[in-house]
Amino acid sequence: MLTIAMLLAALRRGASLNPERLKHVPKGWQVAAPSAADADVVEQRQLGHPANMVGVPAVSLCRHGYPQAVLQDPGAHKFGAGMLRLTCPHLCEAVDAWEAEGAVRALSAELLAEDANRDALRKVNERHAVTRKSMVQGEALARAEARLGADTVRRVLDSGITGLTPSKLDDVKCLHAQLADELLSRDNAVGKKVLEGLEARGVDPTGSEKCGEQCSGCVDGWRYTPRKNKQKLRATRARHKKLRELSLAGYATSFGPGRPLEPGVAASLEK
Question: Which residues constitute the signal peptide according to the record (predicted)?
Fold first, then answer.
């Protein structure tokens, strides 16, 4: 039966941005191509920066119909292990608070003591490795190898969820990533336990009456910005300022051609 949230999400989705990008997403994910409205919500109101979006949950749990997580292109811009992101401010706030209480260590000890959960995590890691290799090919692969070296790129491609070493099955690493993976795949045992744990803590995974104010763009409404997002935004602004200064001084940057930068300076701007 269609829920109000499902209808809202369908109306918001409209024409997808680039459904062709989904052809590189292998089986095991339950995602839909994001619409321009999805991208606007995620990048402008939830994260505050570009997200290289490939997919959003095919069915969002959000009562307001907004995306709660995104599947990202690991080969876009700067290659890396990150391939998904929990974007829902309501869920991010709840998970941040839980992790601050030691939830990563506690859930790792509780869940990964069981063979079934370790096997489930192994399968999640395999799915992430297969997905990276499917999505990072051709020019994107060559660009990554030129910048990082073929060995480093291969290790990243082979890694599990959020860069987890495939054989390391005693650490859930990040509840945000596990929950995002569950929302995007419906096949993550640890992510399901995170959802159950949030509900046990009194958090409604579908949202609250007020949490939709941030995603709707309400100027004076409820909002939550994770501390690490604030730090990242400050670092990004500082890096862009430095790039502009170097460009004006005649050096080659993303703002235009010029004299080559010294290796040490170039490396510092890659961080």
Answer: 1-16
Q: In whole angstroms, how large is the CA radius of gyration of the chain?
A: 19
Range of the domain at 242: 230-270
Neighbouring-strand partners of residue 16: 35
**Residue in the structure block whose two tokens are 């929302």:** 183
Do 18 and 117 lie in one domain? The reply is yes
List per-residue pLDDT tens for the chain, 271 residues long.
Answer: 445 555 555 554 444 566 777 889 999 999 999 999 999 999 999 999 899 999 999 999 999 999 999 999 998 877 888 899 999 999 999 999 999 999 999 999 999 999 999 999 999 999 999 999 999 999 999 998 988 899 999 999 999 999 999 999 999 999 999 999 999 999 999 999 999 999 999 999 999 999 999 999 999 999 998 766 555 556 666 776 787 787 788 876 666 677 776 766 655 554 4
CA–CA gap between residue 131 and residue 163 (Å, rounded): 13
230: exposed, middle or buried (Cβ count in 10 Å: 0-12, 13-18, 19+): exposed
pTM: 0.80
With residue 73 as reference, give the H or E element that holds it: none
Which letter does DSSP use for residue 100 in this model? H
Same domain for 235 and 208: no
The token duo for 205 is 């995974």
